Amino acid sequence: MRPPDFEFRLAGTVEEAIAALGGEDGTTALAGGQSLIPMMRFRLIRPSVVVDIGRIEGLGSIGSSDGLLEVGALVTTARLARSATVRSLSPLWAETASAIADPLVRNLGTVGGNLAHADPLNDLPAALVAARGHVTVAGPDGTRTIGSDDLFAGPFETALRRGELITGVRLPRGSGGAYEKMKRAAADYGVAAVAVQFAMDDGGRITQAGIAVTGGADVAARAAEAEDLLVGSDPRPSTIARAASATAASALMVTDDRGSARYKRELVKALAGRAIERAANRGGGT
Amino acid sequence: MRLTVAVNGVTHRVDCHPSTLLVHLLREELELTGTHVGCDTSSCGACTVILDGAAVKSCTVLAGQADGREIETVEGFADNHRLSPLQQAFADHFALQCGFCTSGFLMAATAFLRQNPEPSEAEVRKALEGNLCRCTGYQHIVDAVRSTRTPGDRR
Fold first, then answer.
1. Residues of B in contact with A186 (CB under 8 A)
2. Fewer Cβ atoms within 10 A, N terminus or C terminus of chain A?
C-alpha cells in the first residue's frame, strides 16, 4: 500500500530543515522513516510535505565529552547497539538499542526519530528518562536543550515547537544500567519494558537511580517512588522487591490486544526486579 | 521526481511519484520482481533488499530515500542460471518450501554474513529476526546460512 500523496523535500542542512519544517501546516520530518512510513501507509497521518532530514551531515556521530555520552540524532539504532563507546558509557542505551524492533528496522531507524515519534511503545524514551538525558534541539529561535522529563508531552506528542528538530542526545555516564523487555514475537513491539540506570559509590551503594516504564499510558513513565526507595541503599533482594513493586504501582498500564492492565502491572513488577538486579550487579562491578 | 539508483551494479534513471516505495520502484518501474511484497506492514521481511550495504525492508523506504544509493536484490545473485553458494545452500538444506520469503532471507543473510562470516547459531537467529517464514520452521534456514561460513561479494 502506497502512502497518500505528499510533496518530498530534501533538507541538506539543519538550517534548511528548520526553514522547511517551519513552513506550511502538515509538514513532517523524515529521518529513517521506520515509524513514519508505516503510519502514512496506514493513513494514521497524512502529511502534505515530507522533509527528508536523513542526509544532513554532522548529525551521525557518537562521542563523549565532560563525562557525557553524545549521540547524533541520525545515528541508527543498529550503530547504537554496536558502538563500543555506547557500551562502555551507557550499558542501558546499548542494551535498549539492541532490543528495538528487528535488525532490518534498526538499520534505518534513528535515535532522533525514535524519540521525536514519542510512541509509548518505543524503547528509547524510557532509556532517556532513566538515564536523565537531554536532547539538543535546533529551531527558528536557535538551539536549546530539553530534559528527559520535559520532552514527552503525551503519546505521539513532544515539547518540540514548530520548526524544531532534535539534533542529538546527551547522556550522563551510567555505571549500572539494564533494559528488560517482554515481547510476544521476535520483531513485535514490547508488551512492556523497564529501563534502569544507577550511579553507585565504591561501597556498592546507589547514589542516583533512574527507572522508567515502556508500554504504559504515558510515554516513558518515571517510577519516582521506586527511585527514592533505592537511592542511598545497598540493593539487597528485599529492597529490590520493594522497588519493583513500587515501579509497578506507579505505572499506568492499559488493557489492549497485548494484555490486560492487571497482567501488564505484574509483568512490569517482574521486569523491574530483573532490571534493577542486573543494573546493580553491573554498577557494583560484580 | 527524478532519481538515480544503482541496482545490482546497473545505474537506472527513473521518474516516479514521491509516494513510491522502494519495493514498488524495483518491482513496477524496474520490473525486478524477485523482491516480494508480503505483509505490507513492515513485519515480514519478504521485501528485504541491501541498501548501501545494510539489509532493509524496501516496503518501508521511500524511493526518494534511495536516490543516489546502491541497491542489491536477489536478481544479482545467480550467474547465468548458476545459483550462488548461499542460494545453493538453501536448496541443499531444504530451507524453502513455497519460496515466497526466500529472497528476503537471502538478502538479510547476505548482509549479515559479510559482517560476520562465521556466526554461531544464536547469532544467525538474531540476525534473521526481521524475516518471517511460514513453511520451514526456520531450522533449515539457520542450517543453510551456517553451512556457507565464508563471506562472498555475490552472496
1. 129
2. C
In chain B, residues with a C-beta closer than 8 Å to the C-beta of A20 are none
Instruction: Name the CATH code of domain A176-283 (choices 3.30.450.40, 3.40.50.2300, 3.30.390.50, 3.60.20.10).
Output: 3.30.390.50
Judged by CB atoms closer than 8 Å, whether chains meet at A104 and B21 is answered as: no
The one-letter code for the residue type at A32 is: G
Q: Which of A5, A7, A104 sits opposite B45 (nearest CB)?
A: A104
Residue A33 and residue B61: Cβ atoms within 8 Å? Answer: yes
Q: Summarize pLDDT for B26-85 with one digit per residue, the tens.
A: 999 999 999 999 998 889 999 999 999 999 999 999 999 999 999 999 999 988 889 999
- What ipTM, to 2 d.p.? 0.94
Domain map of chain A by residue range? 7-51, 62-172, 176-283
Q: Is A244 helix (H, G, I), strand (E, B) or coil?
A: helix
What is the grid cell recorded at A82?
Answer: 554496536
**Which member of B40, B55, B130 has the closest CB to residue A1?**
B40
The answer to whether B62 faces chain A, any CB pair under 8 Å, is yes
Nearest-CB residue to A104 (from B21, B57, B65): B57
A119–chain B Cβ distance below 8 A for any pair: no
CATH number of A7-51: 3.30.43
**pTM (whole model) above 0.90:** yes
The CATH number given to whatever domain includes residue B121 is 1.10.150.120
DSSP string, A73-128: TT-BHHHHHH-HHHHHH-HHHHHHHHTSS-HHHHTT-BHHHHHHHT-TT-SHHHHH
Q: Is A75 left (phi over 0), alpha (psi -120 to 50) or beta?
A: beta
B43 occurs within a structural domain: yes
Report the pLDDT value the prediction gives residue B150, as an integer from 0 to 100.
55
